[in-house]
Protein: Uridylate kinase
Organism: Glomus cerebriforme
Amino acid sequence: MTSEAKLSKDDITVVFILGGPGSGKGTQCAKLVEDFGFVHLSAGDLLREEQQRPGSEVGEMIQNYIKEGKIVPMEVTIGLLEKAMIDNDSNRFLIDGFPRKVDQAMAFEKEIVESSLIIYLECSEEVMQMRLLKRGETSGRIDDNVETIKKRFKTFIESSYPVVEYFRKFDKVHTIPCEDSIDEVYAKVKPIITELFKQKEQK
Ligand code: C5P
Ligand code: MG
């Protein structure tokens, strides 16, 4: 990893947005970008871009993992995130859909930068499935279908929810129920980030 040289860790704010598939991570991030000038990095989007990049050595592997709702080995994902952080040259990053596994959380915070806080969007599987199937009508995503959605839920429960519990130990998690409308959810998300930057300014 080359992070030490390229990213000055001291003044970087990293916020992780976690939640099951279809919980609205990307949607809430778009609103936070408008209000707080974050660079938004979606781990899933970065993986899909790499999968489609001509000549990618890991493209086929990524496709297989996504199709099966499994988690791509963290070397790949952390490498893509680190590159995107260096390329974007910002000190505010909103990272969605990552970490998806406790080992990813520990490796990222050790090698790249520590997160300031975690927003966990809590949602029932019924609502998430409904949203994903709706999105699947137009998304063209190979994983927005009933069969893969079931696998994604299983992966979330087994591997990704433990990340939320891991961060709870450090008192970093803000849990937001997210079955309401986009604006109602955002009304609960926004004050958390406002407070974060207020506290940072006071330091
Ligand atoms: O977050 P999103 O729903 O876009 O992720 C789609 C898929 O990308 C996941 O189901 C998983 O296969 C893969 N992914 C991953 N590791 C991450 C984020 C996404 O393997 N940290
Ligand atoms: Mg997304």
